[in-house]
Amino acid sequence: MEKMYDITIIGGGPVGMFAGFYAGLRDAQTQIIESLPELGGQVKALYPEKTILDVAGFVGVTGDELITRLQKQLDTMDVDQKVDTKVTDVVKKDDYFEIETNHGVTKSKTVIIATGNGAFKPRELRADNAKELTGKRLFYSINDLNQFKDQDVMVAGGGDSAVDMALMLEKVASKVYLLHRRDEFRGLEYMVDRLKESSVKVVTPYLIKRLDEVDNRLKVTSKKVKTEDDEMAMMVDDLVVNYGFISNNRQLKEWQIQPALDHRLIEVNQTFETSVPGVFAIGDQITYPGKQDLIATGFGEAPTAINVLMKEIYPDRRGPVHSTSLHRK
Ligand SMILES: Cc1cc2nc3c(=O)[nH]c(=O)nc-3n(C[C@H](O)[C@H](O)[C@H](O)COP(=O)(O)OP(=O)(O)OC[C@H]3O[C@@H](n4cnc5c(N)ncnc54)[C@H](O)[C@@H]3O)c2cc1C
After folding, report:
1. 288 burial class (0-12, 13-18, 19+ CB within 10 angstroms)?
2. Ligand 1 pocket test: which of 62, 81, 101, 115 has the largest number of ligand atoms within 8 Å of its C-beta?
3. Do residues 156 and 241 touch, judged by C-beta distance below 8 A?
4. What is the pLDDT of residues 157-198, one digit of tens each?
């Protein structure tokens, strides 16, 4: 007989991964469906080398290490993990949902949407020759710090991640510049304080206009903000641009189930149920008053959603206690 899952988790970012583990603790028949070739979401794809400071229990953990640990935790449970599989539609049937993907259709009693930022990509630099130099001297993420060892590197951007990247690069690079179009940085106060104490040279308020490869190095030409033609050229080896990310969440509008949205985010109640009964949502994809897009927040949302939906599916089953009594191997 065709398998009927209790829970289908759409999206295998950190929040979907932890939800999968917790669903396993509750003995739920669970599948996680992830469109990328591996689990880990934004953390794995966009900042594997960054040190994350605000996950409970870790003084600091790199993105890669956190995902490795989540994967190990998830692997202790009997949860079907389907990667390279994109959910293309969710269809409501009488008392279950059909989950359509590019690899076929499965059935599930409930759904947890954990699609985060959807399909995301870095916001690109608009400057002459930027396209031609992408991947050669211009980068949008740091996958291997050693690539920048003993190089002169410029980071462009003014948010948390840009400050973080500059501080990360300081450990291996010969010289790091941080160029921003404003005089102030939007990063966490703690990071900005560390920036002030560091050897990173801050260059403000400038906007990059043009890139040229000269003698195997990169000439970065920038214009001073609010001036007519006050230009400056700097020579570096590499440029890392961190102007944030553009996400595409239009996919939700293409599904047959239509959870209520606030702009592009799913509205949920206090138990993370959407306007569609049986469909829950957690992580960066949702909105509620005071919602913070953080890993720690999503980790907290998962057990609430799962315990509530388990009560809906199995009203007679004993409710949750502590993890040690839920699962003994
Ligand atoms: C540069 C940067 C630095 C950050 N630093 C921190 C930090 O220090 N601390 C912190 O707490 N947070 C940080 N964040 C935020 C944190 O990464 C997010 O809050 C977290 O990743 C949210 O997890 P998620 O599982 O909800 O979503 P995501 O990580 O976005 O994962 C969602 C997953 O769903 C998949 N998906 C989407 N659509 C489909 C579909 N149709 N079918 C199948 N799969 C699908 C995606 O491929 C993705 O893997 C940072 C974010 C960025 C970009």
Report:
1. middle
2. 115
3. yes
4. 998 889 989 999 999 999 999 999 999 887 778 888 999 999
Q: 250 phi and psi, to 5 degrees?
A: -65, -20
Dihedral (Cα; 33, 288, 304, 272), 10-degree rounding: -60
First to last CA, the chain: 28
pLDDT digits (tens, 9 = 90+) for 43-71: 988 888 889 999 999 999 999 999 999 99
Q: Residue 324 annotated as binding?
A: yes
12 lines ligand 1 (CB under 6 A): yes
34 is in an annotated binding site: yes
Domains of the chain: 4-120+246-326 (3.50.50.60), 124-243 (3.50.50.60)
Kindly give the interhelix angle for 14-25 and 295-313, rounded to the nearest 10 degrees. 40
